[in-house]
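Table S2 (continued). Query chain:
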Amino acid sequence: MSSSCPAQPCQSLRHMPVASTRTTTPPGGATGSGTSRTSGWARTASITTARTAPSCQFGHDRSVTTVVGGVDALLERARAGMRRLDPHETWAAVTGGALLIDTRTDRQRARQGDLPGAIVIDRTVLEWRLDPRSGSRIPEATGYDVQVVVVCRQGYSSSLAAASLRAIGLERATDLIGGVEAWVAAGLPVTGGPADVRE
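Corresponding output:
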Protein backbone atom coordinates (compact mmCIF):
# COMPACT_ATOMS: atom_id res chain seq x y z
CA MET A 1 0.00 0.00 0.00
CA SER A 2 1.29 3.44 -0.90
CA SER A 3 2.33 5.68 1.98
CA SER A 4 1.36 8.86 0.13
CA CYS A 5 -2.04 10.50 0.34
CA PRO A 6 -4.28 9.52 -2.61
CA ALA A 7 -4.65 12.02 -5.43
CA GLN A 8 -8.43 11.65 -5.29
CA PRO A 9 -10.55 12.24 -2.15
CA CYS A 10 -12.17 9.31 -0.38
CA GLN A 11 -15.47 8.46 -2.01
CA SER A 12 -17.61 7.29 0.91
CA LEU A 13 -21.10 8.73 1.15
CA ARG A 14 -20.12 11.12 3.93
CA HIS A 15 -17.55 12.66 1.59
CA MET A 16 -19.95 13.32 -1.27
CA PRO A 17 -20.57 16.97 -2.28
CA VAL A 18 -23.51 18.80 -0.77
CA ALA A 19 -25.14 21.22 -3.20
CA SER A 20 -27.43 24.19 -2.77
CA THR A 21 -29.10 25.94 -5.69
CA ARG A 22 -30.59 29.35 -6.25
CA THR A 23 -31.99 31.20 -9.25
CA THR A 24 -30.14 34.26 -10.47
CA THR A 25 -30.63 36.66 -13.33
CA PRO A 26 -27.47 37.55 -15.26
CA PRO A 27 -26.87 41.02 -16.63
CA GLY A 28 -28.83 41.81 -19.78
CA GLY A 29 -27.19 41.29 -23.11
CA ALA A 30 -24.10 39.38 -24.12
CA THR A 31 -21.82 42.14 -22.83
CA GLY A 32 -23.57 42.43 -19.46
CA SER A 33 -25.46 45.73 -19.55
CA GLY A 34 -26.51 47.31 -16.28
CA THR A 35 -30.21 46.46 -16.74
CA SER A 36 -31.15 42.89 -15.89
CA ARG A 37 -33.50 41.04 -18.20
CA THR A 38 -35.93 38.73 -16.50
CA SER A 39 -37.40 37.23 -19.67
CA GLY A 40 -35.44 34.36 -21.16
CA TRP A 41 -32.36 34.91 -19.00
CA ALA A 42 -33.27 33.47 -15.61
CA ARG A 43 -31.16 30.45 -14.79
CA THR A 44 -30.07 28.38 -11.83
CA ALA A 45 -26.69 28.80 -10.21
CA SER A 46 -25.47 25.95 -8.03
CA ILE A 47 -22.88 26.23 -5.29
CA THR A 48 -21.31 22.89 -4.43
CA THR A 49 -19.20 22.46 -1.33
CA ALA A 50 -17.15 19.28 -1.46
CA ARG A 51 -15.53 18.22 1.80
CA THR A 52 -13.23 15.29 2.38
CA ALA A 53 -13.25 14.50 6.08
CA PRO A 54 -9.94 14.12 7.95
CA SER A 55 -10.95 10.53 8.77
CA CYS A 56 -9.40 9.23 5.56
CA GLN A 57 -7.02 6.33 6.16
CA PHE A 58 -4.00 8.65 5.97
CA GLY A 59 -5.40 11.06 8.57
CA HIS A 60 -5.09 14.07 6.29
CA ASP A 61 -7.56 16.95 6.15
CA ARG A 62 -8.21 17.44 2.44
CA SER A 63 -11.17 19.82 2.71
CA VAL A 64 -11.96 21.56 -0.56
CA THR A 65 -14.59 24.17 -1.45
CA THR A 66 -15.67 24.43 -5.06
CA VAL A 67 -18.09 27.01 -6.46
CA VAL A 68 -20.15 25.93 -9.44
CA GLY A 69 -22.73 28.02 -11.22
CA GLY A 70 -20.92 30.31 -13.59
CA VAL A 71 -20.05 33.96 -13.38
CA ASP A 72 -23.17 34.88 -11.36
CA ALA A 73 -22.03 32.77 -8.41
CA LEU A 74 -18.47 34.06 -8.77
CA LEU A 75 -19.69 37.65 -8.76
CA GLU A 76 -21.87 37.08 -5.70
CA ARG A 77 -18.93 35.66 -3.78
CA ALA A 78 -16.70 38.54 -4.86
CA ARG A 79 -19.16 41.11 -3.54
CA ALA A 80 -19.85 39.32 -0.26
CA GLY A 81 -18.74 41.55 2.61
CA MET A 82 -17.73 44.37 0.29
CA ARG A 83 -19.35 47.79 0.73
CA ARG A 84 -19.62 49.04 -2.83
CA LEU A 85 -19.89 52.75 -3.56
CA ASP A 86 -22.36 54.65 -5.70
CA PRO A 87 -21.04 57.44 -7.98
CA HIS A 88 -21.37 60.26 -5.44
CA GLU A 89 -19.83 58.17 -2.68
CA THR A 90 -16.97 57.36 -5.04
CA TRP A 91 -16.43 61.04 -5.82
CA ALA A 92 -16.38 61.84 -2.09
CA ALA A 93 -13.92 59.01 -1.42
CA VAL A 94 -11.57 60.22 -4.17
CA THR A 95 -11.65 63.81 -2.95
CA GLY A 96 -10.83 62.39 0.49
CA GLY A 97 -7.72 60.62 -0.77
CA ALA A 98 -8.88 57.27 -2.10
CA LEU A 99 -7.19 55.85 -5.18
CA LEU A 100 -9.52 55.72 -8.18
CA ILE A 101 -8.33 52.88 -10.41
CA ASP A 102 -9.71 52.69 -13.95
CA THR A 103 -9.40 49.26 -15.58
CA ARG A 104 -11.31 50.06 -18.79
CA THR A 105 -9.80 49.41 -22.19
CA ASP A 106 -8.47 52.21 -24.39
CA ARG A 107 -11.54 51.98 -26.62
CA GLN A 108 -13.94 52.17 -23.69
CA ARG A 109 -12.19 55.24 -22.32
CA ALA A 110 -12.20 56.85 -25.77
CA ARG A 111 -15.98 56.38 -25.98
CA GLN A 112 -16.88 57.28 -22.38
CA GLY A 113 -14.17 59.75 -21.43
CA ASP A 114 -11.65 59.67 -18.61
CA LEU A 115 -12.35 60.24 -14.93
CA PRO A 116 -10.62 63.13 -13.15
CA GLY A 117 -7.87 61.88 -10.86
CA ALA A 118 -8.14 58.26 -12.00
CA ILE A 119 -5.08 56.07 -12.44
CA VAL A 120 -5.43 53.77 -15.44
CA ILE A 121 -4.04 50.29 -14.81
CA ASP A 122 -4.49 47.30 -17.08
CA ARG A 123 -6.43 44.54 -15.32
CA THR A 124 -3.70 42.00 -16.12
CA VAL A 125 -1.15 43.75 -13.87
CA LEU A 126 -3.48 45.30 -11.29
CA GLU A 127 -2.38 43.27 -8.27
CA TRP A 128 1.32 43.84 -8.95
CA ARG A 129 0.83 47.61 -9.27
CA LEU A 130 -1.18 47.98 -6.05
CA ASP A 131 0.43 45.47 -3.67
CA PRO A 132 2.68 47.54 -1.37
CA ARG A 133 5.14 44.64 -1.19
CA SER A 134 5.44 44.26 -4.95
CA GLY A 135 8.60 45.39 -6.67
CA SER A 136 6.38 46.60 -9.53
CA ARG A 137 4.02 48.72 -7.41
CA ILE A 138 3.07 52.28 -8.26
CA PRO A 139 4.26 55.02 -5.85
CA GLU A 140 0.72 55.54 -4.55
CA ALA A 141 0.57 51.96 -3.23
CA THR A 142 1.97 52.98 0.16
CA GLY A 143 0.24 50.49 2.44
CA TYR A 144 -2.51 47.94 2.85
CA ASP A 145 -4.77 50.51 4.54
CA VAL A 146 -5.08 52.63 1.38
CA GLN A 147 -8.63 52.89 0.12
CA VAL A 148 -8.94 51.75 -3.50
CA VAL A 149 -12.02 52.18 -5.68
CA VAL A 150 -11.92 50.17 -8.90
CA VAL A 151 -14.01 51.27 -11.87
CA CYS A 152 -14.88 49.55 -15.13
CA ARG A 153 -17.48 50.21 -17.80
CA GLN A 154 -20.53 48.80 -16.01
CA GLY A 155 -19.48 47.63 -12.56
CA TYR A 156 -19.07 43.90 -13.05
CA SER A 157 -15.41 43.12 -13.72
CA SER A 158 -14.51 45.85 -11.19
CA SER A 159 -16.11 43.77 -8.43
CA LEU A 160 -13.93 40.79 -9.32
CA ALA A 161 -10.86 43.03 -9.43
CA ALA A 162 -11.65 44.59 -6.04
CA ALA A 163 -12.15 41.14 -4.52
CA SER A 164 -8.73 40.11 -5.82
CA LEU A 165 -7.16 43.19 -4.22
CA ARG A 166 -8.87 42.39 -0.93
CA ALA A 167 -7.48 38.85 -1.15
CA ILE A 168 -3.90 40.17 -1.22
CA GLY A 169 -4.48 42.35 1.84
CA LEU A 170 -6.05 45.59 0.56
CA GLU A 171 -9.08 45.26 2.78
CA ARG A 172 -10.46 48.71 1.89
CA ALA A 173 -10.64 47.91 -1.81
CA THR A 174 -14.10 48.25 -3.34
CA ASP A 175 -15.69 49.24 -6.63
CA LEU A 176 -18.11 51.66 -8.26
CA ILE A 177 -21.69 50.42 -8.55
CA GLY A 178 -22.78 50.64 -12.18
CA GLY A 179 -19.33 51.59 -13.41
CA VAL A 180 -18.57 54.63 -15.52
CA GLU A 181 -22.02 54.42 -17.10
CA ALA A 182 -23.51 55.20 -13.68
CA TRP A 183 -20.87 57.91 -13.10
CA VAL A 184 -21.86 59.70 -16.31
CA ALA A 185 -25.59 59.25 -15.60
CA ALA A 186 -25.06 60.89 -12.20
CA GLY A 187 -23.70 64.00 -13.91
CA LEU A 188 -20.19 63.65 -12.52
CA PRO A 189 -17.29 65.08 -14.54
CA VAL A 190 -15.35 63.32 -17.29
CA THR A 191 -12.38 64.63 -19.22
CA GLY A 192 -10.93 64.19 -22.67
CA GLY A 193 -7.54 63.21 -21.30
CA PRO A 194 -4.69 62.79 -21.23
CA ALA A 195 -5.18 59.88 -18.88
CA ASP A 196 -2.75 58.91 -16.13
CA VAL A 197 -1.81 55.52 -17.57
CA ARG A 198 0.51 53.29 -15.56
CA GLU A 199 2.05 50.33 -17.35
